[in-house]
Amino acid sequence: MNSRQSDLTRELTVFIKYFEPYFQKYFEKKIKESLRFSPLISRFYQDLADFSSGGKRMRAFLVYLGYLVGENKDTPFKETPLKGMLPICLAMEIIHSFLLIHDDIIDKSETRHGGPTIHKRYEKLMDSPPRVDRLASRLSGRQRVEAGHYGISQAIILGDIACFEALELINTSDFKDELKVTCERQLLSILRETGYGEALDVESTYRGGTLARIRQVMDLKTARYSFVGPLIIGATLGGVRERQIKGLVKFGHSCGMAFQLRDDILGVFGDEKIIGKPLDFLEGKNTILIFKTYELAGASEKASLRRIWGRRKANSTDLKLVQKVIKDCGALEWCEKEQLKLARAAKNVIGDITSNKRLQIILGQIVDFVIKREK
Predict the structure, then answer these.
(1) Which of 10-24, 27-41, 130-144, 200-214 has the lowest mean pLDDT?
(2) Domains of the chain, first to last
(3) pLDDT of 94
(4) Which of 369, 341, 268, 371 is nearest to 310 (CA)?
(5) Can you give the pTM of this predicted structure?
(6) Mean pLDDT lowest for which of 34-48, 100-114, 173-187, 298-312?
(7) What is the structure's pLDDT at 279?
(8) Non-local CB neighbours of 43 within 8 Å, separated by 6+ positions
(9) Whose CA is closest to 319, among 371, 275, 281?
């Protein structure tokens, strides 16, 4: 392991050492408090905690890293800045879960993080429904709620609750009111633009789209909420300067676009057991990788692709054919080169973000992680 890797790993390890106990304590309290409403509501928080567990916590870490870039000396924290930033970091993790829960419904995904998606978890609850009160049973005529719709309905509600909790975490943090208002405004802007991106993604999947439209979706749906948003929110709370903000936006945008390109590649060439969700070729996603494949492949290869892409009953033989078409036409190589261009663009602005050599190393290693990750 080289020094760049060890710097990022060391910083992440320290961050997670503080973040995970805070995460556990937060949800233990929520699970217990919500029992006074109903066991169902308590289960919402149990499932949200489970769904939000694991991973590298990169979005939460980027919030803290953004704060460090700001180098705010007028800190409201009695202990370490890391401890004081934990509510904001957790808010971003919960926002991530909120968006994934709704995204899984839209994509009709059945698995996430190697387990069932939230709507599938609640759909399965209808396989063994609880005993119904006799009066309520007579009033309803014991009409059985359709399991799939029940699961989707509860998942939408759970996702909404997650969003509300994230805003509450920011609102009850120790920062000055004007900073919290700014932070919430930034988060709402991110959520609004992510919603735009989701709508355009659905449009592109069903109606097709241009390369420019797919790039726009990548920017709105991935780059802004996964990289630009966390960094800017953290940096704002850290008292960042305007020059640094511009650098962070460029860095986050390039990282986010490269991240999505890597996601597109893993969606065809990754191991489903490792990435923890269905491969893109089963869901028929209209990614840059598949767009370039249609653009570069021959007529017979395009016909094969149209037959397989998006067919949920496709098998391993179909997958190998798709992989061969993508490789042979040059689309995979094109995407890998695009990744490297974006990585260079991100690294080129690190000097504008901070003069701190340690933070520069960490930012550079984040770029390397984005383009080399396996999940």
Answers:
(1) 130-144
(2) 3-127+146-372 (1.10.600.10)
(3) 97
(4) 268
(5) 0.87
(6) 298-312
(7) 65
(8) none
(9) 281
CA distance to 96, 192, 220, 228, per residue, from 225 (Å): 8, 10, 8, 6
Q: Which contiguous run of DSSP H or E holds residue 132?
A: none
Q: State whether residue 4 is helix, strand or coil.
A: helix
**CB neighbours (10 Å) of residue 23?**
21
What pLDDT was estimated at residue 4? 43
Could you tell me what percent of the chain has a pLDDT over 90? 62
Q: Quick one: three-class SS letters along 62-88?
A: HHHHHHHHHCCCCCCCCCCHHHHHHHH
CB 148 within 8 A of CB 123: yes
pLDDT at position 3: 47
Under a CB-based contact definition with an 8 Å cutoff, are residues 120 and 101 in contact?
Answer: no
3-state secondary structure of 130: coil
Report how far residue 87's alpha carbon sits from residue 148's, in angstroms, rounded to the nearest whole number.
34
Is the separation of the CB atoms in 27 and 45 below 8 Å?
Answer: yes
Average pLDDT, integer, range 256-283? 78
**DSSP string for residues in 223-254:** IIIIIIHHHHHHHHHTT--HHHHHHHHHHHHH
304-338 burial, b at 16+ Cβ within 10 Å, e below that, comes to bbeebbbeeebeeebbebbeebbeebebbebbeeb
